Amino acid sequence: MFAKGSRYETVPDAVWNDAAGREIAYKRLRLIPPPGVAVQGHVVQRGDRLDLIAFRFYRDPEQFWRICDGNTAMRPNDLVAELGRRLAIPLAGR
Description:
By secondary structure, the chain is an alpha+beta fold. It has two domains: 1-31, no CATH class; 34-89, Roll (Membrane-bound Lytic Murein Transglycosylase D, Chain A). It has helices spanning 50-58, 64-70, and strands at residues 13-17, 23-27, 40-43, 86-89. The chain has a two-stranded antiparallel sheet with strand order 1-2. Strand 1 (13-17) and strand 2 (23-27) form a beta hairpin. Helix 1 (50-58) packs across helix 2. The longest helix has 9 residues, at 50-58.
């Protein structure tokens, strides 16, 4: 259902039975792992966007969520809202 490399790829599937007895498939809650050791950092500059930063470090703009996880961000855009903020850039395999 999710593409290889998606943050939901390893989240287990589950089934819920509604009042009418229908089975409804869903993904269980994805827990954000504790931040690991970042091997790189990035200082936010004017015009930065998470997709551009992700492309720079991972060569894939859809991997922006790795930066969010590494900085325990609930709202991704908050990470680039403050100029000069230093972001932790985790390893791609974490």
